[in-house]
Amino acid sequence: MHLQPIALTLPSMEKNRPKKAEIAWVLLLRSQQVLIDIVETKLKNAGFPPLSWYDLLLELDREPGRGLRQYEIGERVLLNKHNLSRLIDRLEKQALVQRVACDTDGRGNVIKITEKGVQMRKAMWPIYEQAIQEVIANPLTIKQIDSLTEIMDTLLNRHIDV
Amino acid sequence: MHLQPIALTLPSMEKNRPKKAEIAWVLLLRSQQVLIDIVETKLKNAGFPPLSWYDLLLELDREPGRGLRQYEIGERVLLNKHNLSRLIDRLEKQALVQRVACDTDGRGNVIKITEKGVQMRKAMWPIYEQAIQEVIANPLTIKQIDSLTEIMDTLLNRHIDV
DNA sequence: TTCATATCGTTGCATATGCAACTAAAAAAC
DNA sequence: GTTTTTTAGTTGCATATGCAACGATATGAA
Question: pTM of the prediction?
Fold first, then answer.
């Protein structure tokens, strides 16, 4: 990732522009690309699978014996069902998770994390943790981190079903 | 996009967790997904191409006659050259941009926006503008928007080459 | 019970993205 | 001037994602 210190790309060319919200939006958009790319690259360089795998493993690791129905996972991680189905394919191929037929619902199955999956998530965490440290904790003050948290929470809650 | 009001998914299960930066990270990650998805969906529902097309058209629209070399575009939008090459393929197929041989560098070409491209960007903007209004301006106070801008700026500058 | 409808999950197809290899031309080294 | 190295851009391949259609089961209504 090699960013040039270019002038900020504003979203419009129309007059009376840009509004403040538009500047904030463009920065948010770009930071998402840059920061995620940094974290993904760190994981990859350490020989680990991408963040989406971590998310899935984490959700399953929270439900040790029981496992989770696919649609339950879909509610937790932001993936629609067909993508989730194939993400699980990939993890199952690596023996990190396991599909088990569901005895209360013949249509579905229950996804359980394997011991190998548990170990994988555990091994990924230090890298992930350090990456978060680098992209969030180091550049910002405590106050800024609190503020960021509050703002993101506000933005998210606006779009959550009640 | 149908988000459940689920408990926040924290990134780790390790003890003494989570640090504040980790909460902020997870919220940032998720809000980026959600907000971008909302904006992309609005564009799509209005019959328009995705944000990446807008970005490219905008950069070119800023250089009306001259056009831009592909590597110059690559510096402005965050795309590596092979993806950019194919993005331009798609836009060229829709006659929104045009590849012109570069007379000062036989290897490269100059990308110019067409009149149709200019019109397309102009037509997309009201939808995009309204989407930004909805996901950023409406939920946040002016103060929060300023704060968000400052924080994103800080996060980004940390990872820019000097 | 039976039929219509909704839900769970998978698959085929089109598109998007990352990586590595490649062509061609420019720039640098000699 | 010739050779080597870098740079610009494209293409093939593997993978990832969105959409629509599908099979199978569960749920609700008559």
Answer: 0.88
